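Q: what does this look like with 1-deoxynojirimycin bound?
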Amino acid sequence: MALFFRGQAFAQPTSASVASPEEAVVLFFDLTEKGGMEYRATYEGEQILLSSHLGFESRGGHNLKDGFHIVGTTYNAIDETWTQPWGTNKTNRNHCNEMAVNLENQDGTKLTLRFRVFDDGFGFCYEYDVPVTDSLLITDELTTFHLAEDGTCWSIVANYESYEFLYRTMPISKLDNASTPMTFKTQTGVYGSIHEAALVNFPEMALYPTDRPLEFKSTLAPWPDGIKARFKGGKFTTSWRTCQLAQEAVGLINSSLILNLNEPCKLKGDLSWIRPMKYVGVWWGMHLGINTWKMDERHGATTESAKRYIDFAAANNIDAVLFEGWNEGWESWGGMQQFDFTKPYADFDIDEILRYAASKNVAFISHHETGGNILNYERQLSHTYQWLHNLSIHSVKTGYAGGLPDGHNHHGQFNVLHYQRVVDTAAKYHVTLDVHEPIKPTGLCRTYPNLMTGEGARGMEWNAWSEGNPPEHHEIIPFTRLLAGPMDYTPGTFDILFEKTRNLPQRQAWNGNDKGNSRVNTTLAKQLANWVILYSPLQMASDLIEHYEGHPAFQFFRDFNPDCDWSKALAGEIGQYVVIVRKAGADYFLGASTNEEARTVSIPLDFLEKGRKYKATIYADAPDADWKTNPTAYTITTRKVSSKQKLTIKMAQGGGQAISFSPIK
Ligand code: NOJ
Ligand code: CA
């Protein structure tokens, strides 16, 4: 009675709002009559999101969705500059306004809804404190994103096991499900992308349409028993639900919103063991079906091949070599694998290889394919990373190709916690990670910079044994998957048509997708451009090293510096073309690429340092190049340029261009 009386007397507020620093984005929070929660947003004065729902459902009668009143609202202006050991930009500005709405309902559920509103989008997360004594079982998330307008969207299907799908371009109104980042362009020309940030102890969010047109609801990856998330006690914080907004497509790429919503670096002390690297690897031969991971007469990772790759790396200004199929367990591939992560195969003399690599100043990237058997991996985790530490190995590529035990899926809370345990263990032993079949990146690399890169989309491997990735794939992923974080796509296959390997007698199809007619669906110049465009601090030259012989174009990779300081997407349209420049030391590297259409773009060089002359080395599609019929024809020219000039970049169908700029002393 007293409560009721107090509510009447002070007419508690039922709404609150917050604008971004330049007021480009305004976010409104509203309570419904029943004390349910909603939000909406405007961008540049126009509705971008209509009233959208908030809240959760739980098992056991705990009310997490309505009956709320606002206890208080606090505001906080954030403007800070922070740096990271590597990244598309080493220095970032976190400039936003925060609104924390503190709520409570008649069941005693306390909730802080924390909104952060930037000029290029917003994010919000839920901080619940539910009066339970034992545990809390979340059965559904009610968050929706209710777009105000139709338009076009780019996404892969929602799937709790994999992200390795081709992108679909379709009207927003036709979207029947999506994994995030789900990127869109409205009819009035606003670009946006819905994703999440800082996913640590929660299942992933996918999007499904609701009954209301253009509204998409968060659907969480479940545990095997259907529960979405479980917590000991009643306190939990969700990952941030994010919506990037921009006037131009490249504005999505040039945003650091996802990183800004992650916590600062938690790794302490000297982080010099975390460094960007270029690498080659014993890898493509396996995917082509020429070599095997397991030890037989076609074994890829032998002492002899290891030394050959190390020699090549040392001779070509390449920092590291990746070795796959070096450890015991590949015989059980396809079943519930029992890999041993500290037992090299008998023909892989790891001590000798490490000695040889060290003598040539080449780093060793190890490989842990779990096959999805995370229980087997977790059993070995500590002693394996201790073993790596003892051997001074600072870099591991992990893999989760295969189903998980006990009906778990790859993207549920159970496995999200596993991925994080590996990040923590690796950090403890000074090891960086390149995670294949990962949980999608959500900017955690800011907090744990040893989480350097990962896959989480269709990468180069699909070109080895399937219909491949179509040309437009490379103009879609910079605006979708790569908004989430770096990708180990592994560009750089020069034997585009597999002319040198297709008919080798030892070649055997090893993968059900292999119809024997695979190829890479780009020109060679576009492969070079992708080293710049498809950002990864660990950047691979994917092809067999012998295929780089006789190719002057490989000089681009020799010169390329993966340790960039600053990046800018200069031009592009989703699925059509993209131009990105990165600065590393005093040099700049530019990559431009196009889909199936030939294209010419004019790019002002005003990103170059003023008053300085640069030697531009231009790797272009030859005039008669074409991804289908003549993919390997390219030209190399040099020019003296300055920031006052413009360059005309001409790209063939499915082509691209790569340019390195070095200052003239
Ligand atoms: C899939 C990974 O993406 C690929 O890079 C790796 O070679 C295989 N799994 C085997 O681990
Ligand atoms: Ca993969």
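Residues 164, 436-437, 455, 461 surround calcium ion (ligand 2) (CB under 6 Å). Residues 312 and 546 are 9 Å apart (CA to CA).
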